[in-house]
Write a structure and sequence with these properties.
The protein is mostly helical. The chain is 53% helix and 3% strand. Strands 1-2 form a two-stranded antiparallel ribbon.
């Protein structure tokens, strides 16, 4: 039994070595083969198409993410505005769980009115982003 397995293994090994030993015939006028590599334009080439992740467009990524974050913040701001005035008092921000506005209320309310609009909040956030970039 062992002798038969050894013979089969030897035959298989010899067949593989002969197949690999063949020299390929190339046409000198044909372009040289290029290796296929995964690049942003071409995802992993050896993965089946069903398993490949769709490519993301990073050109507008940060802008889109900031827009989505602002939309969510605007919704929370509007939900916290109990009297529908378009402004938030510190107490309304605290009750709605908007701790960021509560903690930074004096800095956001530059006019010292005791209430902030969403535009005031946006101006404050832009100023903070610019300050962080300049550091």
């Amino acid at each position: 039994m062992k002798l038969m397995q050894l013979a089969m293994l030897t035959t298989a090994t010899m067949a593989l070595s002969h197949a690999g030993a063949q020299t390929p015939t190339t046409d000198p006028a044909a372009p040289a083969p290029t290796a296929v590599r995964a690049t942003p334009a071409y995802p992993e080439p050896y993965l089946p198409p069903a398993l490949r992740k769709p490519l993301r467009d990073y050109s507008s990524g940060p802008v889109l993410l900031r827009y989505q974050a602002m939309q969510k913040l605007k919704k929370r701001f509007d939900d916290a505005d109990l009297d529908g005035s378009g402004t938030l008092t510190r107490e309304e921000a605290r009750q709605a769980g908007l701790g960021f506005i509560d903690k930074n209320f004096e800095h956001i309310d530059t006019a010292q009115r005791g209430k902030v609009t969403f535009d005031d909040l946006k101006v404050y956030l832009i100023q903070r982003r610019e300050e962080a970039r300049s550091r």
